[in-house]
Amino acid sequence: MTFSADYQAPEMLLRERVILVTGAGDGIGRAVALAAAQHGATVVLLGKTVRKLELVYDEIEAMGAPQAAIYPMHLEGASPADYDQLALTLQENFGRLDGLLHNAALLPYLSRLKDYEAEDWMKVMQVNVNAPFLLTQACFDLLAASEDASVIFTSDTVGQQAKPFWGAYGVSKFATEGMARTLAQEVGNTNIRVNLVDPGPTLTALRKRIFPGEDNASLKTPADVTPLYLWLLGSDSQGSNGERFAFGG
User: Catalytic residue among 57, 83, 169, 229, which?
Assistant: First the structure.
């Protein structure tokens, strides 16, 4: 089965699945977490702002979905040991991981490379590249313990076609593309599948910070892109591995 724009996820598509979402406190991460829970998943909400995670947790509880879990983590400063501890906690509580969405991202500003602050460069690479690598590595055995595990990396058009001024963010998305495709090759004959999603311009806090004057009406909402994520997280996308999905394309 291939994804189509009119895809409607079955009501219990993600029943009994354990899915970890990074950057789950707002934007696309929040929307996917809510949608996954609504379709039966136990969602692990990972993010740096506890209050935002608690609000999403409360929304999930209010809809009568499976109880979510909150795991506060500041990816910018997390060490390999922190990821190992996360994996241990998941192992003790769930024993496996059926879905992993790498959604968290850092985009502090647009700038020429020659003017980019070195400290900011390091922070962006830590959140956008190192964190997905370390998290996937730490959770690999948990993913392998699932009968059908889906890993989703979030990309961007600037990760395929270089554009001036996108700095560390643009470079990090090139790295994300390479990391996802490499991992997909390595797990090709396993129960784990790895794919990329480019959600396109979407009404998020990150987008509005970079383009404050943009017309909101011209942008998709995070909820608009959730069908693609649900399809990738569920069994309907079995057989899709190493593919790149651009929303609407």
Answer: 169
What CA–CA distances, in Å, run from 162 to 118, 159, 174, 191? 20, 7, 9, 33
User: Which class for 235: exposed (0-12), middle (13-18), buried (19 or more C-beta within 10 A)?
Assistant: middle
Residue spans of the domains in the chain: they are 18-246
To the question of domain 18-246 being in CATH 3.40.50.720, the answer is: yes
Q: Where are the alpha helices (DSSP H) in 139-249?
A: 140-144, 167-186, 205-210, 226-233
Cβ–Cβ under 8 Å, residues 13 and 235? yes
- Quick: pLDDT tens for 196-235: 999 876 656 666 666 666 666 676 778 888 999 999 999 9
Both structure tokens of 6: 């009119």
pTM: 0.94
d(CA 83, CA 136): 9
pLDDT, one tens digit per residue, over 60-79 is 999 999 999 999 999 999 99
Identify whether 71 is a catalytic site residue.
no
Question: In this structure, what token pair is assigned to residue 237?
Answer: 């996308």
8: its two tokens: 């409607």
DSSP calls for 103-118: ----------GGG--H
191, amino acid identity: N
Whole-angstrom distance, CA of residue 215 vs CA of residue 3: 29
